[in-house]
Amino acid sequence: MAKANPLQLKRDADAAEKAGRFDKAIEALKQIVQENPRDWNTVNRIGDLYAKLNNLKAANEQYVKVARYFADDGFYLKAIAVWKKVLRNDPSMLEGNVALGDLYARQGLVAEAKQTLGVVIDEYVKRNRIREAGDVLKRMAEVDPSDMKVRIRLAELYGRLAPAAPL
């Protein structure tokens, strides 16, 4: 079987997208990614097309791959932008919020990091997942070591985890 021409596949995908045939565009782009799995712009575009089809789960599968790659390679602002797309599709995705909070911290955006990680902590507490809440609170304390409220809340959570002392 002859190898498909990536330029032709991109043209086919563009034409299909303009015609509103998002499924056809996705198929053409998947052929490109099959030949070059690290073509992150194309993977991101596949996610965008899935989002246009309102298949948010499939879109997020693509976006998460792209966001992780960008973060791992130090492209933090690009990773932040992609994680925001993921969370727009699924605001309850705790993994995405943690990753976004960590990226904000790496960029020195302390307020954004604390706000994003705070959402995760509150959700873990609601779900009675105290250990996970403590882990994220520990991250938050590292982001802003001078925030005594965070340290106090962390101590309170650790107190809830400790077994009761015998009388």
How do the helices and strands line up, and which of them pair or pack?
Elements: H1 6-18, H2 22-35, H3 40-52, H4 56-72, H5 76-89, H6 94-106, H7 110-126, H8 130-143, H9 148-161
What are the main properties of this structure?
167 residues; mainly alpha; Serine Threonine Protein Phosphatase 5, Tetratricopeptide repeat; 2 domains; 9 helices; 0% strand; elongated
Mind explaining what this structure looks like?
There is one protein chain. By secondary structure, the protein is mostly helical. It folds into 2 domains: 65 residues, Tetratricopeptide repeat domain (Serine Threonine Protein Phosphatase 5, Tetratricopeptide repeat); 70 residues, Serine Threonine Protein Phosphatase 5, Tetratricopeptide repeat (Alpha Horseshoe). It is 77% helix and 0% strand. The protein contains 9 helices and no strands. Helix 5 packs antiparallel against helix 6 and helix 7 packs antiparallel against helix 8. The protein is elongated. The termini are far apart.
